[in-house]
Amino acid sequence: MKRLLVAAIGLAGAGFLFSVTPDAAQTPSVILISIDTLRADHLSLYGYRRIQTPNIDSFASGGTLFSSVACQTPLTLPSHTSLLTSTYPFENGIQENAEVVPPGAVTLAGVLKSHGYQTGAFIGSVFLERQMGLDQGFDTYDSPFNFEAFSPISGEMFFGGVEAQSQVRDRRAGALVLSAALRWLSANRGQPVFAFIHFFDLHTPYTVPEEKARAQGISHYDAELEAVDELIGRLKKSLERTGWWDKSLVVLVSDHGEGLGDHGEDSHGYFIYESTLHVPLLVHWPAGTTVPARVQQSAAQPAGLIDVAPTILDFLHIPAPRSFSGVSLLSTTPRTVYSETLHTHDSFGWAPLRSVGVGAWKYIEAPHPELYNLEQDPGEHTNLALTKAADARSLRSELAKVLAAHPRRAPAASQAASATPQSERLLTSLGYLAPGPRTRTPGSNADPKDRLPEFKLYEKAMVHFAEGQPAAAAIMLNQVLVQDPNNPLARRDLGAVYLDLHEYAKARASFTKVLAAAPDDYATHFGLGLAAKHLGMLEEARAHFQAASRIAPRAVQCGRELDGLKAAGR
Length: 570
What we know:
The chain is of the alpha/beta class. The chain folds into 2 domains: 29-301, Alkaline Phosphatase, subunit A; 421-567, Serine Threonine Protein Phosphatase 5, Tetratricopeptide repeat (Alpha Horseshoe), CATH 1.25.40. Helix content is 38%, strand content 12%. It has helices at 54-57, 76-85, 89-92, 108-114, 162-167, 174-187, 210-216, 220-242, 244-247, 274-277, 308-315, 343-348, 389-405, 421-429, 452-466, 470-483, 488-500, 504-517, 522-534, 538-551, 556-567, and strands spanning 29-35, 64-70, 118-122, 140-142, 149-151, 156-158, 193-199, 248-253, 278-284, 303-304, 337-341, 353-358, 361-365, 370-373. Strands 4-3-7-1-8-9-2-10 form an 8-stranded mixed β-sheet, sandwiched between helices. α19 (522-534) packs antiparallel against α20 (538-551). It is globular. The termini are far apart. The relative contact order is 0.13.
């Protein structure tokens, strides 16, 4: 499919630039719907033919389809942060799932609240839990999750405690999200609202049985998408029945797509190809909105999720805050689309990936750079970086301009310091905490394309571990480390596998090496505490449990371990 930014469904023409004006008789409400992990080119509206998605497609009936929108990073929390703050990941500092949006962030919710809107969010995943900071500006933030700690190097949330083990959920079924949102809308009739509704059902693991997908002759992803489409149909019918549909600006987007095997990537976050960057954007305008009979269509006008919030404010005639870096899609301003992933860098020590899109061209900065013409090669199969070196250099310069034009937020200070000066001195003496600023130990900085076999082996190892085969997992993780000795996540998870195998000396050795690269990783400190405890190194165990508790004060398991040492008089 051509990567074009356009056009009102049912309206012929050429170009996406148009003027829309809300009905002056009332203040439109705004309903922003995010379907996590929805790949644009799997919607029938975007040309997909293996399944039909009539309910999602219907959002553009009489509305507008933007067909060339990219997320700024293919991870849930960072992408939604860019969506709601209209800032780049490197600009707002949220580049992984397990990072906290700093207080004082200017959000779309906050802007609308300041203009008299009631604001509510209804969340489907722990990655957007209130603790992560995206609740800023919301009167109601419905996220019934609870976790105790997280890991910046892996993006994982950790849960602990007997009670938590029986109650913790990392996701909420879309039907429950929908019910919560509809109850809130019903309670807020008669006033303008901003509702953010987040569905996580399309993210693995799927709830639709794989056997059902096979029986239908479609992929497991597509079978789940059909179920999500039915859910969206229920949402739309309810909005129509209760009058919200006619009086609201309803925007449907996704935070990122899914690899589904393209370029060897099954999920998302590893690469930044269109399979995970290209997202749908469908806009239903309130009744009475002036929409031209013909909407012109540009040949190649890419846009980003960063542009959604400014578009909403532009439609409402509310000035965008100075902090917003996106550009309204209702304007004629040309735009360069920036995307990134640092996940392989932060987790494995490999090179970060960054891209820019200008017109039909897309450039990916990597140790082996890539250049694609997305109109002629939407699947990104033919790398033109060598044959069109001048174009690649020009886009690389454009990438540098984007990075230079927006101030970067300094990374948050490490919280790895232990709870007491005594334990910090002990950890320092053991070589775990270096004095002065803590810096990451450089990894191989390899091109993720070249490390894909090791990544696949790592994933296979973790599947074996999850299925209760730690010995097989240990063999595979050691094979990964032979190829890539500076891989922090593989080494940390090898430490966890050794703990499971009761090989505590090996676990301690593995975790110790990880701390040089990730001194503030909760899981590493906690794992070291367990290994040291079983080896009889009780003061060291106490120091690591205290360090882990300092990073995650709510972690029940740390308190339990410290209480156990205290009760034993150790």
